UniProtKB/TrEMBL annotation:
It comes from the Bacteria. This is 2-succinylbenzoate--CoA ligase. It comes from Gracilibacillus salitolerans. GO terms for molecular function: ATP binding; medium-chain fatty acid-CoA ligase activity; o-succinylbenzoate-CoA ligase activity. Keywords: ATP-binding, Ligase, Menaquinone biosynthesis, Nucleotide-binding. The keyword Nucleotide-binding applies. Belongs to the ATP-dependent AMP-binding enzyme family. MenE subfamily.
Length: 479
């Protein structure tokens, strides 16, 4: 067994009075207070749950943070549920992940009544009397800490296992790449039930770094936090980044703000160029639930020279591009495969999926990309989103980038429809100003893309389907 003193216990001992959590309403929790509340909550939760997995259903809140750390003191794996799903989907995921008990924030009381599991709101657990129980003092790094379901952009979501060692490796590798400043404060507006959000909690405790926690992304609240609350780092995806740049207008962020970590898929070049003009420190990253967040990140020193790249693999990670199970040449597009101490050991009770995903020690991501001559990663698209038209490969992200470069277009999504002649052809779904027409966009695309890549139809929408982390769900564009 690889053991380590419980991270929160250690942090509360080292820097008890430092801020752990800061909320937009002015409420704060020090590491000592977070430790005390987590232990107290654990002793109350113990009265109703003493074995098996716990599912957690909550939006971002200090209650959710306390409840999560409480579960680690009981050595109970936490299964995170996406609040945007239906009760039926929660039920299926709880069954898939072998959940025994559900704990949730009070706003979901009516929804949770449809589940067949024991379920307790945070407020009810707070009202319990504490009982004597043995809380974990040392973490077994090989134990399961948490489970999250893949975002489900394709097919049925699978429960991804995260060990304590996965989370530790991710946090340490991130710090080795991005650096760690005494003044760092990470703004968390991604859902904590997704890996991009949860990973910030581990960084906070391991680094001794405060987290400015928002319930959800709100560009006005995020903008105010960046301008007024000494935030140094924020995690975003392309659409939230775009909204923040729009809100920034002619202003500039304070010098304390040093990193906008951009993940969630290929970043459109027009967005990166706009950020460069506004001197916004974009740092692209590549990662997924199965890699416990980042596994490749562009070092800040290379951000302008390698615009559009997701960087190189982090210190404890390895990454290759494979074509037909052989290593690709530089600039050859193939599947991104990875390995390292932050990579999951597998999907919970999904043997076939594990056999398909893990081969010769490498995890096959299903994403397409290439490495340039210097070994920098460029992410092209999801393999499952690839459009093959008359034998030619079309990457939706490339077409979306061209559409987004047209003034007045805020969002763009490209997918395939069946075609009797070509097999598949691309169509586009766009959110744009009223002045923008389909003919204008088609002319714009024809001047920048090969004819087979030009969308055959353009449909205007008020919004595009996105998951809880604002990733575009291309498989839902036609619904």
């Amino acid at each position: 067994m690889r053991g380590m003193e419980h991270w929160l216990t250690k942090r509360a001992y080292l820097t008890p009075d430092n801020i752990a959590i800061e909320l937009s309403n002015g409420e704060t929790l020090t590491f000592a207070q977070l430790y005390e509340r987590a232990c107290e909550f654990a002793s109350k939760l113990y009265t109703v749950h003493q074995n098996g997995h716990i599912a957690m259903l909550s939006n971002n809140s200090s209650d959710m943070v306390v409840a999560f750390w409480a579960c680690t003191y009981l050595n109970v794996p936490v299964v995170f549920l996406n609040t945007r799903l239906t009760a039926r989907e929660w039920q299926i995921q709880c069954e898939d992940a072998d959940v025994k008990t559900v704990i949730f924030s009070d706003q979901y009381k009516e929804d949770v009544q449809q589940l067949t599991f024991k379920a307790y709101p945070f407020s009810e657990i707070h009202s319990f009397r504490s009982v004597e129980c043995t809380l974990t003092t040392d973490m077994n790094l090989d134990s399961v800490c948490s489970m999250m379901f893949t975002s489900g952009t394709t097919g049925r979501a699978k429960p991804v296992i995260h060990s304590y060692h996965n989370h530790w490796s991710s946090a340490v590798a991130s710090a080795l790449n991005l650096g760690l400043m005494p003044s760092d404060k990470w703004l968390a507006c991604l859902p904590l039930f997704h890996i991009g959000g949860l990973s910030i909690l581990f960084k906070s405790v391991i680094y001794g770094m405060p987290v400015y926690l928002l319930e959800r992304f709100d560009e006005e609240k995020v903008h105010r936090a960046l301008m007024e609350h000494n935030v140094s780092i924020i995690s975003v995806v392309a659409v939230t980044c775009s909204r923040l740049l729009e809100r920034l207008g002619d202003e500039y962020y304070p010098t304390a703000f040093r990193c906008m970590l951009l993940g969630g898929g290929p970043a459109p070049k027009p967005l990166l160029e706009k950020a460069k003009e506004k001197r916004v420190p974009i740092v692209q990253t590549y990662g997924m639930t199965e890699t416990s967040s980042q596994i490749a990140t562009l070092n800040e020193a290379e951000a302008l020279r390698k615009l559009g790249s997701a960087g190189k693999p982090l210190f404890s990670a390895s990454l290759q591009i494979q074509v037909d199970d052989t290593t690709a040449e530089p600039n050859q597009v193939g599947e991104i495969v990875v390995k390292g101490s932050m990579v999951t050991t597998g999907y919970y009770r999904r043997e076939q999926a594990n056999q398909e995903a893990f081969r010769d020690g490498w995890f096959h991501t299903g994403d397409l990309g290439y490495l340039d001559e210097e070994g920098f990663l460029f992410v092209v698209d999801r393999r499952s989103d690839l459009i093959i038209s008359g034998g030619e490969n079309i990457y939706p992200a490339e077409v979306e980038e061209v559409l987004l470069s047209f003034e007045g277009v805020q969002e763009a999504g490209v997918t395939a429809i069946e075609d009797s002649k070509w097999g598949q052809v691309p169509v586009a779904y766009v959110v744009a100003n009223e002045q923008v027409t389909a003919d204008q966009l088609l002319v714009h695309c024809r001047s920048r893309l090969a004819s087979f890549k030009v969308p055959k139809q353009i449909y205007f929408r008020d919004q595009l389907p996105r998951n809880a982390t604002n990733k575009l769900q291309r498989h839902l564009l036609k619904s």
